[in-house]
Structure formats: C-alpha cells, structure tokens
Amino acid sequence: MSVMEVTDIMKILPHRYPFLMVDRILEMDVEAGTVVGIKNLTMNEEFFQGHFPGNPVMPGVLQMEAMAQIAGVMLNSRSGNAGKTAYFMSMNKVKFRKMVTPGDQLRIEIAPLRIRSRMATVQGKAYVGEDLVSEAELTFGYGA
Predict the structure, then answer these.
(1) How many DSSP H helices and E strands does the chain contain?
(2) What is the mean pLDDT of each run of 10 residues along the chain (144 residues)?
(3) Residue 85 has what pLDDT?
(4) Pick the catalytic residue: 10, 30, 38, 51?
(5) What is the CATH number of the domain that holds 65?
(6) How many domains does the chain have?
(7) CA triplet 70, 72, 73: central angle to 5 degrees?
(8) 140, 87 contact by CB (below 8 A)
(9) How far is CA 68 from CA 3, 49, 55, 56, in A?
C-alpha cells in the first residue's frame, strides 16, 4: 500500500485532535498484518507544556497510544473489520529505552503476534532515527 495521509487515517480511526497520534502511514501490508507509521513531535504538543516544564519529554503512555493507533489503522483495514473499532485492551513487555522530545519523529513499526477474528496481539517498536525508544506487545478486541 502507498502512503496514507492523515485525512485517510481519520476515515479509519475515531480519534481526533488533540488525541490523534498518527500523522502518516508510510507502509502497510494488511494481509501480513504489518504497518509503519509516524508521529511528528513539536513543542506545540499540549503534553509538552506540563511534562516537564524546562525538560519536555513525551509521556510513555502516549507513545503506547501512538503505537495502538497505528496498529488500529492496520487492524481496522483488514477484511471484515470495516466500520469496527479495534479497542486497546492490554500492554505487556513494555520497555521505554530513550526519551522522546520536541523535534523528534517517532517511527512506529507493528508486526502481528496473533490475529484472530475478535482479538489481536501485535508487537510494536518505536524508533527515533535508528534508536529504539520504546516497545511493547499490545492486545486489542474488536467492537462495532
């Protein structure tokens, strides 16, 4: 699949500003269950104002949310899932390795671990440049 811009992403995900954490899908193979997306970070992000003043850092839970949304684009694009929502159910094996700060571009890669008709578990890895900054196993359930 070619690049997916934010207007296309908004047709798939229910999230909106300020909680839409996906700026672009760079590549996606729905059949293989893989997707790569990005979140561009600027000082204008609301969370940088209070996390932390004088030393802005992207909260780890928002890194997980960005991962979940990018996985959701792929999961909601799968055959039979049109109009459904992939609800985030759990995070396991979560690791935060480096800080993410204004000016960074978070590149998130998602690969399937288990995909079934009503549930899915994926492996997510987030990078800034070549540096792995966070990773986790994420589980979703599908809803209408």
Answers:
(1) 2, 7
(2) 89 94 97 96 96 96 98 92 89 98 98 94 98 98 79
(3) 87
(4) 51
(5) 3.10.129.10
(6) 1
(7) 70
(8) yes
(9) 19, 23, 26, 22
